[in-house]
Structure formats: C-alpha cells, structure tokens
Specification:
Layout (H helix, E strand, L loop, with lengths): L12 E5 L3 H7 L4 H21 L4 E8 L7 H24 L3 E5 L7 H14 L6 E8 L1 H19 L13 H6 L11 E4 L14
Parallel strand pairs: 1-2, 1-5, 2-4, 3-4
Helix pairs in contact: 1-2, 2-3, 3-4
Bound molecules: farnesyl diphosphate.
Farnesyl diphosphate (FPP) binds next to α1, α2, β2 and α3.
Length: 206
C-alpha cells in the first residue's frame, strides 16, 4: 500500500470519528463490545501507520459528550477499554516518539481514567514526533465555549483593551489560539469510519 501513497501529498492532520463499531459487530452476530474491541485494534493500526508516514497530527474522536447517554454498562466498558489500551500501548507510543494529548473536558471523566491519561501525557510530554490527540468527553460546541471563556479570562487578567472593554473584539486568530488543538495544523482529512457523512459536533470550527 505504501507504494501507492504519494509521500509529497500527505495530510498534515488526520481526524477520525471512530464509529460503526456496533454495526460492525451486529453484522457478525457479535455483542457491541466486540465491535469496540475491534475499533481499538483499528486505532492501533492507524496510529502506527500515521507515525510511520510522519503525519504531524492525528486526532481520534473516541468519546463524545453525547456518549454519556449510552447504557451505563457500555460506558463502563469503554472506559475500561481505554485504560487497558493506555496500559498496554503507552510503551509503544513512547518508543515511536509520539506525544499523547487528551482533548475535551477530561476533568469530568472517572478519576481512574484521569489518572491514567495524565500519566500517559506526562510520560510522552517530551516526545517530538507525531501528536496523538484522543478526544474524550469532547464536544465541538463545548470546545468553542472553553475557547471564549479562556479569552475572557485573559482579558480579566491582562486588563481590557486600551480603549476599554467596549472596544474589545474577539477575532479569528484569538479563537484559533485557544482551541484544544492550538499550535497544530488544521485537520485536512476527516474520516468517519462508519461511512456516514455527518460531523456530529466534532471540530465544528473546521
Ligand atoms: C460510536 O459508534 C463509537 C464509540 C462511542 C466508541 C469509540 C471508541 C473506541 C473504539 C475506543 C477508543 C480507543 C482508543 C484507543 C482511542 P458505535 O461504535 O456505537 O457504532 P454504531 O455507530 O454502529 O452504533
């Protein structure tokens, strides 16, 4: 497959909405959780492939704010799966010089998950290769709310515009600088694994 790839025309930031797991499992008469397990295997393959191709950034939409509406048992399973993934794969991620970053309101995740993702981020913080963003408890609208609040916080701290608050305006650059993915190229390839063509509150600013 590598022979067919034009290495001069690679995306700089790939974003993936990882869905279709349930349908994948149903087609095979398997439980939904088997689909999620297969989804993690695909994620591993994609992470390795992107790192080998020197793609600067990969963002995986793993758990949306809307996903809390799923049955408790499925949520618990997904959280366990994520922790298991981190435990097993962190050495591989680190060896591949990948820097792990969690995006989303991760402070609202279960404590054990927060501990694991923080350990993973700290462990890989000095890596200089691909940036791997895992979106957890992520919502595109919430990201914009967080960006605007961070801008307002800056205004409160650094004082208002020289002509007073009335003259203060938010501009595009300010918003860009306060997104979870600040400093990274904008995604130039968005894949939704189920094949659906909706973006479902993912990176709405794109
Ligand atoms: C949504 O579609 C998918 C999820 C809620 C879970 C996706 C998360 C993972 C595969 C685990 C994340 C792991 C890593 C390593 C980042 P669906 O699966 O419910 O499928 P459907 O659209 O067919 O119902």
């Amino acid at each position: 497959l590598l022979d067919q790839v034009d290495l001069q025309r690679l995306p700089r930031h790939v974003a993936i909405i990882m869905d279709g797991n349930g349908r994948w499992a149903k087609r095979r008469h398997l439980p939904r959780i088997a689909g999620h397990r297969a989804g993690v295997q695909s994620a591993r393959t994609i992470i390795e492939a992107c790192a080998r191709l020197h793609i600067p950034a990969l963002t995986l939409y793993a758990f949306s704010m809307e996903n809390w509406r799923r049955p408790r048992a499925e949520i618990d399973f997904l959280m366990r799966l994520l922790r298991e993934y981190l435990r097993k794969e962190l050495p591989v991620i680190h060896r591949n010089n990948i820097r792990l970053q969690i995006i989303g309101r991760s402070d609202q995740l279960p404590k054990a998950v927060i501990d694991d993702v923080e350990r993973g981020m700290a462990h890989t913080a000095g890596n200089t290769g691909m940036r791997l963003n895992v979106a957890l408890n992520y919502g595109g609208r919430a990201e914009l709310v967080d960006a605007f609040n961070a801008i307002l916080q800056g205004v409160r701290h650094n004082g208002v515009h020289k002509n007073g608050f009335d003259a203060f305006r938010v501009d595009e650059q300010m918003i860009t600088n306060h997104l979870y993915t600040a400093g990274l190229p904008d995604p130039d390839l968005l894949i939704r694994t189920s094949g659906e063509m909706r973006i479902s509150n993912f990176m709405l600013w794109q």
